[in-house]
Amino acid sequence: MKARKLILALLVSVWGGTAIHAQQTETLSLSLDEAQQYAVEHNYALQNATLDVRKAEASKWQAIASMLPQIKAGFDYQNMCGYEMNFGSRGGGMSSMIPDSIQIGGMWMPIRLPEGFGESEGSATSIPMNPSGNFSITASIALTGAQIVGIGLSNIALDMANISNKQSLMTTKANVKSVYTSILVMEQTVQLLNSSLNNMQQLYESTLASVKAGAAEQISADKFAIQVASLRNSINSTRRTLEMLYNSLLLQLGADVNSKLHLTTQLDQLLNVDYASKLTMGGFNIEDNYSYQLLNQSQRLSEKQLSMAWMDFTPVISAYYQYSAKTYFGKSEGFNMTPPNMIGASVSLPIFQSGARMAKIKGAKIDLQETINSKQQAEDGLRVQYNQLSYDLISSLESYQIQKDNLEVTQRVLDNTSEKYKYGHASNLEVTTANTDLITAQSNYIQAVMNVISAQVALENLLCKE
To answer: How many domains are there within the chain?
Structure first.
């Protein structure tokens, strides 16, 4: 059956990217809305989409934090294991040979000598190198144009993650609806086939009774027996397909595969012809389409990357403050040339890079133009797709109405022919032909229902209607 091929294709498309969410085995009685909400809460693909949003938020704050002051503290300890610095004298006090201060980094620092150092002329003096510890706190900040543009890039990445999350949510709901509806359609198929089977079974039994009474030939009963066996095989095959659909829905929901499903929404409630007709007449606002929104964000991203390339011409401004405290742990204090407070600032401006920056800017401009061209092409494609999907839905609705009427007619034909057969006014061939026509009409009707649902879901996805 064509409907069965469509079901198998649907299974292949929805099984990709799904995962089993372990839960206790249970029986789930779900309407379509409840099934969609269940999938939103348990489907792993949606959970990953939500995590992508949180990851983008973390990247944004990381970019912002890079522009804020950075503070770090440190402590170091030195012990020279009792080593002493010796100074010898050849006739003159050491105190006269040691300056009072020394210039370090443009600053004059006083030299403090141990008490009594160098007072005895001609004598040798030693300075103990006592253990020491140094504690420091440094606060620094560096600002570049690339950091500012980087925050803009992070905002765009966050917007794209949010749009992708909404798109994943819509896709998951659409997949649940498709599989849910397919199950209802297959269940109705089983009902229609069972109805045909009961009718054929009755004809077979009545014909078999006529054969025993000598009023009919055995070949007539055999033909009905083949029809009964064929219908039973179709019912068994449909039930196996139905089991696959139930398993597929469990995967989409993120439920335990051992759970049992009971669907409470009826097919008539989902097959809303009036709603589907209005869907084709509502027009297409392309700004609502998630794919188009992502294309807009891609263009913004390319524009920011061009700005980032220009930031190579901007200066880097940095400043810092450092506090240091050095302590000696011995009886006498050694040389201490560490200033307790220090501040500094710098400005760095790139001047020449052999044309590399201009080449980078040129490449960014080309990327931006390519993005604009792709966006325009995609926009035209979306508008054409809307027209095509609208036509498909209209054609599916027309075909559905025809097949629905045809099913009713062929059912009446079979009932009428079967009644005539009981009274000998119709042949076995006529009954078999009428039954075959009914089975074909049932298959065409199921195919028409599936086509309407598929076309409606596709158009809803394009219009981003949940």
So the answer is: 2
